[in-house]
Amino acid sequence: MHATLPRLEQTDFPAIKRGQLETLQVNLGYLCNQSCLHCHVNAGPTRKENMQQETVEDVIRFLRDNNIKKLDLTGGAPELNPYFRHLVSQAHALGVHIIDRCNLTVLHEQGQEDTADFLAQHKVEVVASLPCYLEENVDGQRGDGVFQSSIAAIKLLNLSGYGITGSGLELNLMYNPIGPHLPPAQCQLEQDYKRELNNRYGIVFNNLYTLTNMPIKRFGSTLISKGEFDNYMDLLKGAYKADNLHTVMCRSLISIDWQGIVYDCDFNQMLELPLTNTGKKVYLKELSSNHLNKRDIMIADHCYGCTAGQGSSCGGALHE
Questions:
Q1: CA separation for the pair 239, 304 (Å, rounded)
Q2: What would the DSSP string read from start to end of the chain?
Q3: Which pTM was predicted?
């Protein structure tokens, strides 16, 4: 695995500051039932890192004490964490809007047979990764059989009410490019997804989000191996749009790793760029949301990924 941070640390990306904290994004661990080529987390079936109950309780306390109303759960496969359902149940009781970043195939894993119904019961928004509506492209990126397994999982979610008009259960799909390219226009691609997936498989969803591949971890290492890293960085920098600085997700979000350490975003977490420029680790249990307002955000060259073209975030394009 090639290290990418040494290629990203020297940057001319403009300084940015935090606004009001709105979203607590929590990585429950790097354990996953898939090992995807584009994965910026380097997650997989052999990863052992998983958030423990004490840290989960820290998350619940932070939500309650700081009146945070959005909890964004990611991984790995967050559903594989043994405290996933406890966290969801407690956050739901606090009136928090919960997002589960689901790879879809996890719904077929042993012990996950009722997960779709559990998510529906707690009104969890599902953001499901489906990098293409074509089988060969998905299997090429994620492994043989992943596409059909994903389609079956979406049908399961539809049966639980997800994506159905008037149900109040939101199912959003996430697209990322197959290789070192920027995503196409989100609005047009969403129309293509809805048409093709409904016509071919009879499935429905609410929105499509596009996400730019970050030149870090597994994807960044692959770029280095293929001699494409510098060209990809040139692509991101050449497509930079200053308007995207106003709405990048790190202004209103913090990312918590499986140990409870706080970062400005999920990508900084993977690069182990600390919340402050002192190099000191900050734990969630030490933090209050009012300590964050107007603080400088730790930046490096990978930040160009969020500001290139239409912009990119965990909620999709920043503008059309």
A1: 8
A2: ----HHHHSS--PPP-B-----EEEEE-BSB-S---TT-SS--BTT---B--HHHHHHHHHHHHHTT--EEEEESS-GGGSTTHHHHHHHHHHTT-EEEEEE-SGGGGSTT-TTHHHHHHHTTPEEEEE---SSHHHHHHHH-TTHHHHHHHHHHHHHHTTTT-TTS---EEEEE--SSSS----HHHHHHHHHHHHHHHH----SEEEE-PPPSSHHHHHHHHHTT-HHHHHHHHHHTB-GGGGGG-GGGTEEEE-TTSBEESSHHHHHHT--SSTT----BGGG--GGGTTTPBPP--GGGHHHHBTT---TTS-S--
A3: 0.93
Phi then psi for residue 198, to 5 deg, are -75, -45
Give residue 189's pLDDT: 95
Contacts of 230 (CB under 8 A, 6+ apart): none
Q: What is the dihedral of CA 39, 44, 49, 53, to 10 degrees?
A: 100
At 175-216, the pLDDT tens digits run 988 789 999 999 999 999 999 999 999 999 999 999 999 999
- Report whether pLDDT(39) > 60: no
5-307 in CATH: which number?
3.20.20.70
Please give the Cα distance from 170 to 125 (Å, whole number). 5
Domains of the chain by residue range: 5-307
* Contacts with 93 (C-beta within 8 Å, 6 or more apart), sequence order: none
Note the pLDDT tens digit of each residue in 209-245: 999 999 998 888 899 999 999 999 999 999 999 999 9
Residue 156 identity (one-letter amino acid):
L
Judge whether 315 and 97 are in contact, CB under 8 Å.
Answer: no
* Calpha distance 219→41 (Å, rounded): 9
Residue 291 and residue 301: Cα distance in Å, rounded? 26
